[in-house]
Design goal:
alpha/beta, 9-stranded mixed beta sheet, 8-stranded mixed beta sheet, flat
């Protein structure tokens, strides 16, 4: 090959090694043989290009097969769900929609009307008030009335009439006149009859049947047709309303949600199959009832194409669904996107009629313990009744996003077009131009997707295409990096005799040779921190602050070293140390606790010395934990450090932060406590710290058992009994005992903390499954 031909290839890389060849006369270029390194680089460049193209085309093929659903990648589906959530939140209209109102059984209603469930005559009064006084359009219940109301005593009177007072003519004569007033279910049924009322019920996967289902929403022939063109959600059992109520209501709809793989409610099955018949969702039943022109709920007409079910019509309204009859919920905003009106205010006529006139009213609850909470893309704690409200408003506005059957074709087209451009162009150009092409393709993909989302109400997959373009660019950069690194190493070996040996060693350095594998062993780790250090540092100039830290850290470090501890690092004012390495020590837990007690004592003396010189008060908190840790030389190729890592280390750091919460100076974990049998400890709590799902028991070391005075031992005995009553949920007894402890030791923050907690939990019991632990959501 002639040099003039090969220079065209090398021009891309502008390698300075070959620049001297260009200065020679053209007549001699063909006579100069290539040095061995040039031939080596040439073939390496060709192999690199082939490898780049091969890998890029492999990525392209895999993503195309994923688009065709031939090779599914679950992680891409999960990322696509997150992308959908981001687009949904970015385009929510916001504001409050006054057309759908939630009649809220809130805490105020429970205080005024009594605990739930209310007697059915009161619910009947609510329905009558809504229709007669407020002229609402539709009333729907996000509640199931599965059991008879026995609060009136009517059943007891019937029992007396058929047994003890069977022959009492006077009693028998007045019994029929009492029925109308005492048959609360009958009165509730009468309030539903002849009005646009919709009851709620649920389906599930358990084989059971409670109450009476409404009539199926489709004719039998339509059910058979639907089963052939769609894979609707199938239910095994249901929980529905009393027959007398179901027969009186205009219709009923299920409020069974559809949970995606991450547990979020993004869609609702508008149609569910049960034993071959089809039943509608609550939101759909409400819309059909609202469109009732006096001839009954508006019928549903299936919109079936060659590809299958795509939507159905309710009068003039088109409702898009997928092949499983699922409809995406068009969330208009976060929680409270619809008006909430207290149910008791409606009952007592304390509401402006204009707020309810011709509205759709959903009866639900926001009271703690009654609220139906869901995890949604717009909030992890979201009222289930608002999910129905969003869907009802979206159906009326016809703003439901859709995923039509032809969506895979559109997705395939965009993958082939934009992905094809990426796979063809990106590996050809230099990194700067390739990056520019990547950014343009990413921008086009996002703009096209958002345009389809906004103007077409179509949810087009986005993440696979973006990830494909990004991976093609990233792989091209990585291949280029490794190729250039290998080339530089070859050059360094070739010209090493002309440059310092240290530079050659740096160029040919293999970092993997210096990565040290750590060992795992049982150890104890300590974290200490100066309280309110930020306030202290703000009051001192840099020189004084530096001197203060030197005066503090020096004696603390000396104590750790004297106890055979290893100082891992200083983090500002904080100290991290561990025991049990590099020399194994079976007494590591004992030495750590003794060091912590000495550090507290020394810190108190230092504080007095600092204050005597006009300096700040010094108080420290210490967290200690024992457990299995990984210890060794860890870090990067630039800096290595002998340190410890592991879950037990993280817990020790959290324990140091908890000292402020409990008003103590030292907190240790369970493993540390069991290692010291001759020490006394005060159990502080069972906690779930941030980053851990399991509860851990934490303790305060009190010193050697023989050194505790009798009065303090008596106080500890009372505290242990109080803690036992607290965890057994004997709130009254626990409150008395903690109050007594507060009188015995008013300066102990721990007792006041538990006294306050007891009062809170008395009013809001944690439930039978409570393990006695307290959850900390911050570090």
């Amino acid at each position: 090959m002639k040099l003039i031909e090969f220079s065209k290839i090398l021009k891309f890389h502008r390698t300075s090694i070959f620049k001297p060849l260009k200065t020679m006369p053209d007549t001699h270029k063909s006579e100069i043989p290539f040095p061995p390194v040039v031939h080596k680089l040439k073939w390496s460049w060709i192999r690199r290009r082939s490898l780049r193209y091969s890998f890029s085309w492999l990525l392209f093929l895999l993503f195309v097969l994923h688009t065709l659903h031939w090779i599914p990648f679950p992680f891409l589906d999960h990322l696509e769900l997150l992308s959908y959530d981001a687009r949904l939140r970015a385009t929510m209209p916001g504001g409050v929609d006054p057309r759908v109102v939630i009649a809220d059984v809130d805490e105020k209603s429970l205080v005024e009307e009594g605990h739930w469930p209310w007697p059915r005559d009161r619910i009947a009064s609510l329905v009558e008030r809504l229709f007669n006084d407020y002229h609402v359009g539709v009333v729907a219940f996000d509640v199931v009335f599965a059991e008879p109301d026995r609060s009136s005593g009517w059943e007891s009177l019937q029992s007396l009439a058929s047994q003890e007072l069977k022959k009492d003519a006077a009693f028998q004569s007045i019994l029929p006149s009492l029925k109308e007033g005492l048959d609360y279910d009958g009165r509730f049924a009468a309030s539903l009859r002849g009005r646009r009322t919709v009851l709620g019920y649920y389906f599930d996967d358990q084989v059971h049947a409670v109450g009476q289902l409404p009539e199926p929403v489709l004719e039998p022939y339509a059910d058979k047709l639907l089963s052939k063109v769609a894979t609707t959600v199938h239910a095994e059992g249901y929980g529905a309303n009393l027959p007398v109520l179901q027969k009186s209501a205009a219709s009923a709809g299920h409020f069974t949600p559809s949970l995606d793989q991450d547990g979020l409610v993004r869609s609702v099955p508008l149609l569910i199959d049960y034993k071959g018949r089809t039943y509608e969702a609550l939101s759909l039943a409400v819309v059909r009832a609202a469109l009732d022109n006096g001839e009954g709920p508006t019928p549903i007409v299936l919109d079936i194409t060659k590809s299958g079910l795509e939507a159905f019509q309710i009068g003039s309204i088109r409702v898009p669904v997928d092949s499983s009859a699922l409809a995406l919920v068009p969330y208009r905003g976060r929680r409270n996107s619809f008006p909430y009106i207290s149910a008791t205010d409606i009952l007592h006529n304390r509401v402006d009629p204009a707020l309810l006139d011709k509205t759709v009213v959903l009866v639900g609850s926001s009271a703690p313990g009654l609220m139906d909470l869901r995890a949604t893309p717009v909030g992890e704690i979201y009222p289930g009744v608002e999910v129905h409200a969003n869907l009802i408003a979206g159906i009326f506005d016809q703003t439901l996003k859709e995923q039509p059957s032809y969506l895979m074709t559109v997705d395939l087209f965009q993958t082939l077009f934009l992905g094809g451009i990426a796979v063809v162009l990106i590996p050809v150009f230099n990194p700067m131009i390739a990056t520019l092409i990547t950014l343009v393709l990413l921008a086009v993909a996002v703009a096209w997707n958002l345009a389809i989302w906004h103007w077409g109400n179509i949810v087009l997959p986005l993440v696979p295409l973006l990830l494909l373009i990004f991976l093609i660019q990233s792989s091209d950069i990585l291949f280029g990096y490794f190729f250039e690194s290998r080339t530089k190493k070859q050059l360094a070996n070739l010209f090493g005799q002309y440059v310092p040996q240290e530079l050659v060693e740096e160029m040919s350095l293999d970092p993997s040779r210096y990565s040290l594998v750590g060992t795992s062993r049982q150890m104890t780790v300590l974290f200490s921190d100066v309280r309110n250090f930020t306030n202290i540092s703000e009051k001192l100039d840099p020189v004084s602050l530096s001197q203060l830290m030197n005066d503090y850290l020096t004696p603390m470090t000396r104590i750790i070293h004297q106890s055979w501890g290893t100082v891992d690092k200083y983090i500002g004012d904080a100290i991290m140390a561990f025991w049990g390495a590099p020399v194994e020590d079976p007494e590591h837990a004992r030495r750590a606790i003794l060091a912590a007690l000495d550090m507290q004592e020394r810190a108190a003396k230092l504080s007095q010395e600092f204050q005597a010189r006009g300096g700040p008060e010094i108080r420290i908190g210490i967290g200690i934990n024992t457990g299995n840790m990984r210890v060794g030389n860890m870090g990067s190729e630039f800096r290595m450090a002998y340190t410890v890592m592991g879950d037990a280390v993280n817990l020790a750091s959290r324990l140091e932060g908890l000292t402020k919460q409990y008003g103590v100076t030292i907190i240790v974990g369970e493993q540390t406590r069991v290692s010291l049998l001759d020490f006394s400890f005060r159990e502080l709590d069972r906690v779930k710290v941030k980053g851990k799902n399991e509860a851990v028991t934490i303790y305060e070391p009190l010193g050697r058992s023989e050194n505790l005075n009798p009065s303090f031992k008596s106080e500890l005995s009372i505290y242990r009994q109080a803690l036992a009553d607290y965890r057994a949920q004997n709130w009254d007894q626990a409150s008395i005992e903690f109050y007594r402890l507060c009188e015995l030791s008013p300066e102990t923050k721990l007792y006041h903390l538990y006294l306050d907690r007891t009062e809170v939990l008395r009013n809001h019991p944690p439930g039978q499954n409570w393990d006695g632990s307290f959850v900390f959501t911050s570090k």
